[in-house]
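Hi! If you just cloned this repository, the fastest way to understand the data is to look at a raw example. We've pasted two of them here, unedited. The first protein comes first, obviously.
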Amino acid sequence: MDNTTYEFFIRRAWECDRFEKGANTDTWESLLYKKYNFDNSIGTASETKNKAEYDKKFAEVKQYIDNAYNNLLYRATKINNNDDLVDALLDLKSRAINSDNPADLYQFLKDSFETLNNHNL
């Protein structure tokens, strides 16, 4: 999983620069780091602490992504008024927000680029 996919998704959704609206590769890298720490601490004394840090970061990243999808949906209805695009974005948003690990979330972001490209958004 590369960090730029996350950043480029946020930047494209918001049409913003780096470090705005959560668009920062370090945010995604921090999530992966916290996931690694949690996965490697299972059964140790630091498991609870690492799980809490990972859960907090994962929720933060998902909130940035949810906000980005909300903005994409706003733009799709305002600019294109395209029901197919709105339906696709709603599906991707739902799958992303309900994901329970970064690998799945990453795949939904990659899938989103195909949808955005196909609809010139």
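Ok, and the second one:
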Amino acid sequence: MEVGSALLTPTLTFIKNDAGEETGREETITYNDSPVESETYDSIGVYVHSGTVNYAAGEYLINNKGEVTDKRVEAGSISATAQVTATYPWYSGNTDGLIK
């Protein structure tokens, strides 16, 4: 991304499968391990978009005989991150015309 561009807004999607319902989430953007308050990529470097979803325990699983087992997905959390590198624009060409 170019320095000065608006921050991306990645979508954090939780697919529960055999886990329980989502109980909470936290999404942050950091730069040099500090929270980002700006709405743009305002410095050159790597920005980290992080998200964590907490979920409840799922239902007990049913085996191939239709019997309820003692196995289930326990309550927990799952995290994901994405990195975005911000840089100044690069130009090529000569005095007759520059291309960004």
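That's it. A detail worth noticing about the second one: The mean pLDDT is 92.
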